[in-house]
Amino acid sequence: MKSSNLHATLTDKQHKTLENILGAFILYRPDIGYIPESMPNLAAALVHHLEDESIVFRCFINLLHSYHFLTFFRGEMSEIKWRV
């Protein structure tokens, strides 16, 4: 499923969960903020497959920390090259 089509498959409740997750992330990591090009797609995939909002948030945070997405979001490309 393409990420651009994923938002269309979310229910109203899932859209609200997505908004809550992204809003909570902004408060959790104000140094990163909100990256509209990629964060909604990552979070939407989790919302699509998980029902509990707190679990979605924890998975989203763990995903970002585990796979160096935060380094990418900060724009630290030299750090990414070093890790690859």
Description:
The structure is a single chain. The protein has 84 residues and is mainly alpha-helical. It has one domain (3-83): Orthogonal Bundle (Helicase, Ruva Protein, domain 3). The chain has 6 helices and no strands.
**Number of E strands:** 0
Alpha-carbon distance between the termini?
A: 27 Å
Rounded mean pLDDT score: 82
Q: Roughly what percent helix?
A: over 70%
Which percent band covers the strand fraction?
under 5%
User: What's the number of helices?
Assistant: 6
Low-pLDDT sequence parts: none
Q: Output the CATH topology.
A: Helicase, Ruva Protein, domain 3
| Main beta-sheet annotation | none
Q: Report the CATH C-level class.
A: Mainly Alpha
Secondary structure category = mainly alpha
How many domains make up the coordinates?
A: 1
Give the key terms.
0% strand, Helicase, Ruva Protein, domain 3, 84 residues, 6 helices, single chain, mainly alpha
In short:
This protein has 84 residues and is an all-alpha fold.
How would you summarize the topology of this molecule?
Layout: H1 3-9, H2 12-28, H3 39-49, H4 53-66, H5 69-74, H6 77-83
Helix pairs in contact: 1-3, 2-3, 2-4, 3-4
